[in-house]
Amino acid sequence: MEFDAQVIAAYGRHLRLRDASGRVLQGRPFGRKLQVVCGDQVRCTADPTHDEIHVNEILPRRSLLARSTLRGDAEPVVANISLLVTVIAPLPRPDPFIIDRYLCATSSAGIRALVVLNKAELDIAAELADELAAMLQSFETAGYSVLRCSAETGSNLEALAAELQEATSVFVGQSGVGKSSLITRLVPASAIATGDLDRDAEGRHTTTSSALYDLPGGGAVIDSPGVRDFAPSISSLEARSLGFPEVDRLAPGCRFIDCLHLQEPGCAVRTATESTAMDARRYESYRRLRRLHTDLKAAQGPGKRRGQERA
Ligand SMILES: Nc1nc2c(ncn2[C@@H]2O[C@H](COP(=O)(O)OP(=O)(O)O)[C@@H](O)[C@H]2O)c(=O)[nH]1
Ligand SMILES: [Mg+2]
Ligand SMILES: [Zn+2]
Questions:
Q1: Do 99 and 86 touch, CB atoms closer than 8 A?
Q2: Does the structure show a pLDDT above 80 at 206?
Q3: Minimum-distance ligand to the CA of 160?
Q4: CATH architecture of 234-308
């Protein structure tokens, strides 16, 4: 018998599903091509001879966060989210270029973005504090909201909860920044227990899992494992601005309509780095992503396409 369910945890091909009545079931995708991720709505069948559910179909996604593999193929990360929360902390030291790439991935996917500095209570060296302040300023100049909070002291968590209200969010960021700690603070303990994302069906600890938790005031939040790097899938990037909102705003001032904002004369984006309209670090990030985008497209050349079919 067919029924629909929501994927509330995914660790590789092991899935935790929740049906319409709220029952939690174990399942796996049926068919190797089905790339099911946390947040997906799926159509399933219960196999009467096994106590496992087959996921046969992914229902249309309202949004998708997708990364690019080194070969330039798109790989889904989480589905049906409306907000991406990039969590950073003074330690481990943030890499702003990775944050920029996450932010770019949201632009054309119709996903709102928020940057959260956690562990804001830490007493840090003046040099690092200045570096962080400049980094946060670069995101704000681009137009993103920034929130400083602490899972440790609870400071500013009401503001974070207000941002998450009614949204389906995903928390991304390096391992150790405090994503799980923040979620533990926002979600009632009872909801965490039923999710228990850190262990798979056999009770093993997993590091490659994402899990969804319902928020008390409505909405849900997806905890994700820390990643060292992230590149948005080629198809999820806008060809012109690569998802940099300030590039979108400035590009109409460029002399050439097809300006890539690199060496072209009369480029309004490059010129803006001399004022406050375009942060110089963000511009460097744009140049790097432009190079990566070109490389990934080349990796998708006709010779390499065939290997892709096997997946
Ligand atoms: N000082 C401080 N430590 C924190 C804070 N939030 C989390 N931590 C610590 O940072 C470490 C990593 O936290 P965790 O939530 O597992 O990070 P995740 O890998 O991003 O999920 C743990 O030792 C937490 O206790 C915070 O606001 N302040
Ligand atoms: Mg965690
Ligand atoms: Zn330009």
A1: yes
A2: no
A3: 1
A4: Orthogonal Bundle (1.10)
